[in-house]
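Journal club prep — side note

Before the paper discussion, L.F. wants everyone to see what a predicted structure for a comparable chain looks like in token form. Sequence:
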Amino acid sequence: MFTNNILSIITWLPVLGAILILGLFRKEQSDLIKKFATAWLALDFVVSLWLFGYDRGIGGFQFLEDHQWIPAIGARYQMGADGVAMLLIVLTTFLGLLAALSSWKYIEKREKEYYILLLLLQTMVLGVFASMDLFLFYLFFEVSLVPMYFLIGIWGGENRLYAAIKFFLYTLVGSVVMLLGVLKMYFLTQDTALTG
């Protein structure tokens, strides 16, 4: 059971951490929030190491999970990892941990919001790498832009507002183009699976 759901556990664990931070900590408890978020991201990294059980002899997608999601269009909650995705998932969990550790001395305002957004961003990026369904991939990709926008706009450098607006405009154009591509692929194939 654990192996069958390992990608969902790795992907959604940061959301659970964000919910716990939201519900258990007051914003004045910034040191506890930093430690909790970092420990939670370390846990996600440790769990992701399970993916090194990937069997290269078999190849292809492993750690597969497949559930009905939106039957009307054939979209499924389909997760899996090949050799490249497995490495990207482990790398993402490691970089999430490094981001939390490196932010300890640089993030001095609104720490609670920062760590919640960081955890949510990690979930979305992990979902992008683990998705095997076109619409699920698109959803994870698009939702990842929300925490990125706020991370840039609130905790960015000197020109953070300009950078956030520019980020929004570029991603809006890119998102529309990607949506058109997703829709074209769906209407041509009548399938949302990314595995062909």
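L.F.'s comment for the group: Residues 6-189 form one domain. Keep this in mind when we get to the figures.
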